[in-house]
Amino acid sequence: MNATVLIADDEPNIVVSLEFMMKREGHRVLVARDGREALALIRSEKPSLVLLDATMPELSGFDVCEAVRADPGIATTRILMLTAKGRETDVARGLGAGADAYVTKPFATRELLERVREMLT
């Protein structure tokens, strides 16, 4: 299963570990370090899945999610919000913005990989 996965996160350590995991699973990996770059890559590359942090420079993950859902050309993009924002209101906001799934940091690698596999099938 060779999918294109976009990692949108501004924390280098998270990006490195996610990139390693996704490449090990056989996926093509793109990286965006802020919300504007993430949105531009979603529009140009049409990834199969976006691992999206809620708090990033330029545009928040919530803003990126809403912009994706409002754009008919990319509205079906699968989005997994992966963030330290774990309060119920944050989860509700993420899902309300259109995220397909919401995982809080720190996350268990195995659980995240299972969720990614589910979302890509």
Question: How would you describe this structure to a colleague?
Answer:
By secondary structure, the protein is an alpha/beta fold. The mean pLDDT is 94. α2 runs parallel beside α3 (61-70). The chain has a five-stranded parallel sheet with strand order 2-1-3-4-5, sandwiched between helices. The protein has helices at 12-24, 35-45, 61-70, 88-96, 109-120; strands at residues 4-8, 28-32, 49-52, 78-83, 101-104. It is built from five helices and five strands, in the order βαβαβαβαβα. The protein is 45% helix and 20% strand.
Secondary structure: elements and pairs:
Blueprint: E1 4-8, H1 12-24, E2 28-32, H2 35-45, E3 49-52, H3 61-70, E4 78-83, H4 88-96, E5 101-104, H5 109-120
Parallel strand pairs: 1-2, 1-3, 3-4, 4-5
Helix pairs in contact: 2-3
Q: Which stretches are low in confidence, meaning pLDDT under 50 for 5 or more residues running?
A: none
The helix count comes to 5
Summing up helix and strand content along with how strands pair, one would put the structural category as alpha/beta
State which percent range the strand residues make up.
15-25%
